Amino acid sequence: MKSAREYRSKHFSRPFGVGQPTHITLRLQMAVGEYSLLRKKSWLYGYIPRLARQLGIRVLHMSINGNHLHLVISTRACSLQAAFLRGLSGVIARKTLRAEKGCAKATRFWSERPYSRLVT
What we know:
This protein has three helices and four strands; from the N terminus they run αβαββαβ. It has helices spanning 4-8, 41-55, 78-97; strands at 22-27, 58-64, 68-74, 115-118. The longest helix is centred in the last third of the chain and has 20 residues, at 78-97.
């Protein structure tokens, strides 16, 4: 059995089951004050389901906290799950840092890679 740290490593594949719910946690390193996710909460509750609909993903549950975000999603393909995570994390970082697409900021926004595990 792999530890939580090994799952976060880029050298191990993310757990995936076709149609099986997956719990995903995205954690922010700099979520204090104006960078807190609680300031973006109303916007995120609208954006996450819209992005999921575009990719054909079902969002079963979501919880937005100050420095992290919990999602339970179900999808048909691993590539769709990866596209969802890429799109979501990129837009959250750009909106929070007020950065333009293609002009990266010099700060590290996310604490670590998204943590995911299958829900049984």
